[in-house]
Automatic annotation (TrEMBL):
Residues 273-582 form the RagB/SusD domain. Residues 26-228 form the SusD-like N-terminal domain. It comes from Echinicola rosea. Residues 1-19 form the signal peptide. Keywords: Cell outer membrane, Membrane, Signal. It is found in: Cell outer membrane. This is Membrane protein.
């Protein structure tokens, strides 16, 4: 039988592929049951859990979040390998239905959906036959996790593809024809995934008591995704209900970490701020390819790092300048450092800046065991790199991780700071409540010892330095759009910046405005650890006019971006050609 449908091909890989790290070694060491038949499988709760691990495995597929190109198509990144030229189709807004990233993301999401459907169907059939209460409870929790992921994957499809109109699968197809499903309208898809997420919110536990279960999804994660969905659809009242559940329910115990850097490295993973997190590990499967689907490590470190990595993604000019200009709270002792001579001085850059990106003249936080200037050449007019997802705090070079092309840094998909900022937006756009919205923004800023918004002596932190500005709804919303969300959440989650720009209706205007900005580069001189004087040429970004090449971002994007073609990923060409319900031939 000829396999015409792309989703049919995806389904061939949908039986459990084990090895997903969900916070425990048992998951990472499970035996792959691909050789089992459906007649011999799905007979016990352990079978359900094995199938669920395959769903977690689908979640850790790096194509599912597609972080590099989801951000290349926003205003946040430059696609690497030096300036000022690039041929990256996502940055240039030249992608189409044949481009690899939407094809791979579609494949990853539907593979996860098919695996979740297997667990859902099997759970619903098995649970009524179970005799003891503990088995029923365990199976019910597995069902709730599977429905969470099916809802999450459809949420990603609806916010990512074809203006939200995609095929729905609420069953396990039994023959080729059942894979030929038509596109459903966005409203129907939304109703479908919201039902899944609401079920998960009601039936998932708020936390897990066993260490072996840490990293599994919780009711708090479901509430966060529900709130995000309602915010994206401008249902601010309902969004606030779910965000308040996340923030105020003591059973979840969420709290901002003391150190913002704990959200970006292997230090303090699965911490109090983490709501939804993808677990990766270096402890297993070193014998198989770094690119294998069952691999439990990631290689985002090689994407972002210039120290042994490919440096194929780094911050755009405006983002680097915004980080450099993010003002610190001069009244906060965390912003003062003691130099080798015993003198005390103010940090050059904020804690948030230092933990988010690496700048050549940032002398206050080590980078791969030395200074940022000494760690890498900063050549080719590269003036900053993302620290996020790299292993700068535990190795001197990404190639020190053997075998290469692997990283154990977890990906925090949703964290509490994101919820605080989304809640602030809901307050502003729903109620016009500027003061309360500012409270939540300032909580995020205070964690990183940043200058707070509003008047000195006000708010939850009256001793902190404030900017002494008066805000209204529009000016505070502008701050959220152009400062707080991009600087706090750069390169995080599922296409956060791309979706934010689109839902605010500012993508085209943003590209056009940024294409008018001019940046220049200056040299940085320092003495290295061997006492040698070294110059990093064109490594310092500035808006001050210099006798150097002018850097201008997004000129092609401003010209090429058409909302009807680029606001969403198109349905992939592989699906259009294969599926007769969408466009393929019978």
């Amino acid at each position: 039988m000829k396999l015409k449908n792309n989703l049919y091909k995806i389904m061939l890989c949908a039986l459990p592929v084990l090895g997903m790290g969900t916070g425990c070694s048992d998951f990472l060491e499970e035996v792959n049951p691909n050789e089992m038949s459906t007649e011999s499988f799905w007979k016990t709760v352990d079978d359900l859990d094995a199938g669920l691990i395959a769903v977690y495995n689908a979640f850790k597929n790096q194509n599912l979040l597609a972080i590099p190109d989801e951000y290349n198509r926003s205003d946040m990144t430059w696609p690497g390998w030096g300036r000022p030229n690039t041929s990256n189709q996502y940055y240039l807004q030249e992608f189409n239905e044949s481009s690899s990233t939407p094809n791979n993301k579609w494949d990853a999401l539907y593979k996860g959906i098919f695996r979740a459907n297997q667990v859902i169907v099997a759970s619903e059939e098995l649970i009524p036959t179970l005799k003891d209460e503990s088995s029923q409870e365990r199976a019910s929790t597995i069902l709730a996790q599977a429905r969470f992921f099916r809802g999450l994957f459809y949420f990603y499809l609806t916010t990512g593809f074809n203006e939200g109109n995609v095929p729905i699968f609420d069953f396990v197809p039994q023959n080729e024809e059942e894979f030929y499903q038509p596109v459903k309208p966005k409203e129907e898809v939304m109703a479908f995934y919201l039902a899944d997420l609401e079920y998960a919110h009601e039936h998932l536990p708020p936390s897990y008591s066993r260490d072996i279960d840490q990293g599994r999804v919780t009711a708090g994660a479901a509430a966060a995704v529900l709130g995000k969905s309602h915010l994206y659809n401008e249902n601010y009242t309902q969004a606030k209900v779910y965000f308040e559940d996340v923030m105020e329910n003591p059973a979840y115990g969420y709290a901002l970490t003391e150190n913002i850097g704990d959200n970006f490295t292997t230090t303090n993973e699965l911490n109090s701020e983490s709501i939804l997190e993808i677990n990766y590990s270096l402890a297993y499967k070193s014998e198989i390819s770094a690119w294998a689907e069952e691999q439990v490590s990631n290689n985002l470190n090689f994407t972002v790092s210039p120290v042994g990595g490919w440096r194929s993604l780094y911050p755009s000019c405006w983002l680097i300048m915004a980080y450099k200009e993010d003002p610190v709270d001069i009244n906060d002792p965390r912003n003062y450092v003691v130099d080798e001579d015993g003198s005390t001085r103010l940090r050059k850059y904020s804690l948030r800046t230092s933990y988010s990106i690496a700048l050549v003249d940032d002398t206050d936080l080590e980078y791969y065991g030395t200074s940022t200037a000494e760690a890498t050449a900063f050549n080719n007019k590269e003036t900053g790199y993302f620290r996020k997802y790299s292993n700068w705090e535990i190795v001197e070079d990404e190639k020190d991780i053997v075998p290469n092309l692997r990283s154990g840094v977890n990906v925090r998909v949703i964290r509490l700071a994101d919820v605080y900022l989304m809640y602030a937006e809901a307050l502003l756009m729903g109620d016009g409540n500027v003061e309360e919205a500012m409270t939540y923004i300032n909580r995020v800023r205070h964690r990183s010892a940043l200058q707070l918004l509003g008047m000195d002596g006000t708010g939850e932190y009256p001793a902190a330095a404030h900017d002494n500005q008066t805000y209204d709804v529009q000016s505070l919303m502008d701050h959220l759009m152009y400062v707080e969300r991009p600087l706090e959440l750069s390169l995080e989650g599922n296409a956060i910046r791309t979706i934010d720009l689109r839902r605010w209706g500012i993508t085209k205007d943003r590209f056009e405005e940024l294409s008018q900005r001019k940046y220049y580069t200056d040299n940085f001189e320092f003495v290295n650890s061997n006492g040698q004087s070294v110059t990093r040429w064109a490594s310092v970004l500035t808006t001050e006019e210099m006798e150097s090449d002018v850097l201008i971002d997004y000129q092609q994007a401003a010209s090429n971006y058409i909302a009807s073609e680029h606001a969403y990923w198109p349905i992939p060409n592989s699906e259009i050609v294969a599926n007769p319900q969408i466009g393929g031939e019978e």
